[in-house]
Amino acid sequence: MSISDGDEGFSYWVRWQVPVCALVIGGPAFFAVKFVRKLKAEPLHYNDLWTPCWRNLNPLWLLIFRAFAFVCLAWVLYEIVSVAGAFAFYFYTQWTLALVMVYFVLGTVVSAYGCWFSFKKLPSSKVKGTANLKSRYAQEEIQGKLRFWGYLMQTVYQTCAGAVILTDVVFWCLLVPFLLGEQFSLTLLIGCLHSLNAIFLLLDTALNNLPFSWFGFAYFVIWSCLYVAFQWILHACGFTWWPYPFLELRTPWAPLWYFSLALVHIPCYGIYALIFKMKNSVLPVLFPRAFIARSHN
């Protein structure tokens, strides 16, 4: 990464490509933020945050898996940062990896609390009505404590869904075939960085009972637009090297690249939505006695 040496400056930002690309990125971001502000959160079933979608699978196994996934991803990020330092977060991949780690941290904490609550024995009572009353109060207590964290966990989960598909598809289908050997070499660590994020999230999807809503696409758009804005700010401050060639504004093809990048968000989120739909349509047929089909969206 280098600082401007005079080749770039004010003249770089008055190119006709800049306002066009800004419109391509800023337009979706504006409508996504406007949509999120008007969005009314759907009722969240708190048991879905930590209970698996498999009938005989103890919630402890989901807790263990989420903790294991976090540790593995944290190790990968640690290795990357130990080599590249803060420069590691110059890339969208590391942004996404950190976001997936946030999901698994939230999932681990929520799963631990849910398991603790489900295994906690309520005080015995000889009066049935009193026992039911305590159970209702306990349910209201856990819902109150997990309301914010539950919605945050669902939001991060849906954002990660599109981001991991975008990250891995761009890397394996675009960067590796055309830039391998010129700008980077494929190592085991780089391979893990661009695969474990999706693998762990897909495995969690196969185990969890979380809903997956279409409005999560707005969060995915906002996330990507924040990264592009971050890159533009850095380059406005003097950085000249773009981490991804298709973000370069100098070329006359820049608006087409930016427009294509914006469009590819739709199939990336759609792929994960399709995987989720297949989960709830195929698995109940294959495992009718083991898989718990969702009764709500």
TrEMBL record:
Q: Which UniProt keywords apply?
A: Membrane, Transmembrane, Transmembrane helix
Please give the organism: Carya illinoinensis (Pecan)
Record-given protein name: Uncharacterized protein
Q: Which residues form the signal peptide?
A: none
Q: Which residues cross the membrane?
A: 16-36, 57-78, 98-119, 155-178, 184-203, 215-244, 256-276
Q: What superkingdom does the record give?
A: Eukaryota
Please provide, in alphabetical order, the Gene Ontology terms of the cellular component aspect for this entry: membrane
